Amino acid sequence: NLIAPSDGYIGSLIVDKGSYVTPQDKIAAFVDIKDVYVEFGIIEKDVSKVKEGQNVEVVVESYPDQIFKGQVESISPIVEGRSRTVQVKSKIANLDEKIKPGMFGRVNVLIYEKDDALVIPSSAFKKKEDQYLAYLVHPEEPKPAAEASEDISSKKTKEKSKKHKKSKKAVSQDGEEAPALGEMAEGPKQTFGTIEIRPIEISYATPDAVEIKEGLEEGDLVIMDVEQELQDKAKVEISETQEGIF
What we know:
Distance between the termini: 58 Å
Number of strands: 15
Largest sheet: 6 strands, antiparallel
Number of helices: 1
């Protein structure tokens, strides 16, 4: 009689019916896949970032829209072979048994998490000597359009005004009456601002984004791509603003 220590499956049979076996012989592979382990390698320079207990997210090709979650359970103390990687083992909950032993997947290790973090793109600051600088833009208030004054005390003024309105109409080349000048659609309004170069302190940085410790506040307008040298108090035109880029 063969008795398993828990519920599970016979993965493969190694011997055939009628074969002679001893207690030391392996006859089958028994698997319990309610919990599975994923093994992956980390490059040498990232070893210090990964620790036991960190959260892990796994995506397998069979279920690309589903994320399986677990924790780092063990980290090898040895940097292996030519790949110069450290093997990490993570336990993944698999209650619906979708992950099968032997599958390949992509693993993300969450090495840093923080609620309500103030974040800007990595392209939105520059480092000069020992300082990090962000480039803020202070939008200028749009100037109100001058109100036209009309003298209604004279009939001649009214008559001239009427004639002027009629003269605004024109005829297009195909003979159709073109819209009056006063009816033409207005173009996009231009918005301008002033640059402020402000020192910032960074709490944490990734290739894509940085967390701001000091120097900026929520709602500040910053230049996303600092590709050229910008001067403090320089005037700029605000062509586009974006929110919620992360």
